[in-house]
Amino acid sequence: MSEEDRYVFIAEWYDPNAALQRRYQLLYYSKDGSVEMYDVKNHRVFLRRTKYDGLQKEDLFIGNKINIFSRLLHLVDYGDQYTSREVGSKKEKTLALIKPDAIKKMGSIIETILDSGFIITKTKMVLLTREEAMDFYSEHHTKSFFSDLVGFMISGPIVAIEVVGDDAISSWRKLLGPTNSSIARSELPESIRAKFGTDGTKNAAHGSDSVASAARELEFFFPSSGGRGPRNTATFTECSCCIIKPHAVSEGLTGKIINGILDAGFEISAMQMFTMEKANAEEFYEIYKGVAAEYSDMLVELCSGPCLALEIRGTDVPKRFREFCGPADPEIARHLRPKTLRARFGKNKIKNAVHCTDLPEDAVLEVQYFFKILDS
After folding, report:
1. Are 180 and 105 in contact (CB under 8 A)?
2. What is the distance between the alpha carbons of residues 83 and 293, in angstroms, rounded to a whole number?
């Protein structure tokens, strides 16, 4: 086999039973989509070469977390020069921020990001304190617009997104358009600021302007050092829980599903991306154990990649939102209630686009599981 067909990465997996971080060499063969794993410490084959449909070449970049046979692997380094040269050369991470003025348009902005070929690897809705906003924009503290900018950025929730792609820093800024939305409308009418912005401050979204800024700004919102970053916006009152399932996230449906929820008049009051460990999925789905015949398949799906947890608010929301999601089986949903989320975006009873709280008394508990327990 030619070298061209094979990519090698160093991957880490946390083994909860032994409380150890284990290292593997992960080989991916693009010709037939097969994977192979070697245990680095013990110098032995851990997984013989096996075809694995759940992995694409696009998923392979440093920093990403991938799921292989229910093991959540963190890609930490390239395994050889060839892989580094082929995969690593153009891939960059940058910060995309959806500002308070565009929060009602977040579905459309996320859709634009995904349609432009970017991958979203982290997402969190936050409400900045004045100190956090001043810290984030510290480079502008001598400028005349500084206090207006800070005031605007703490006026409502914002959505922080880690975006990955080829030349992501410049590509995302190009997609944003000129800082002033009026200039954007005349010069780049298809840009995000032209479509969703108002002026030079209320300009819908932000993008890091350099590799150094991207690293600093991503660390601010998504600290790698075990810190918390700005807190999430969950209210835990008059709410229901929605999870956009991993298959829908990987199919690029996130923006469309968010738009569907907002267009139906629901409020999304908190949002965060999680990659579930099996133990967490079992804990969360515990009420379905022994009740739902599909329980074990539900676990596999929830752990198969990143999911997006949402807190949904509104009057009588658990009941109304469950009706809006539709029957668990998308085939039945398409037949009986074609406008529901599962009818529009579901594939089958397991990959049915979204999970929603079934019983009103579980609503706050489910929201707390993600936004209090997992986000700590």
Report:
1. no
2. 42
pLDDT for the residue 226: 67
Q: Is the pLDDT of residue 336 over 70?
A: yes
Query: Measured between alpha carbons, how far apart are the two ends of the chain, in Å?
Result: 46
Which pLDDT value is given to residue 89?
63
Work out the mean pLDDT of the chain and round it to a whole number.
Answer: 93
Pairing status of strand 65-68 against strand 71-78: antiparallel
CB-based contacts of 366, cutoff 8 Å, min separation 6: 240, 241, 284, 357
Answer for the pair 243, 249: CB distance below 8 angstroms, yes or no. Answer: no
What's the predicted TM-score (pTM) here?
Answer: 0.86
Active site (catalytic) residues: 206
Between CA 7 and CA 80 the distance in angstroms is 8
Rounded Cα distance, 292 and 219, in Å: 41
Q: Are strands 34-39 and 44-51 parallel, antiparallel or unpaired?
A: antiparallel
Q: How far apart are CA 135 and CA 130, in angstroms?
A: 9
Q: Helices then strands (H, E): number in the chain?
A: 16, 14
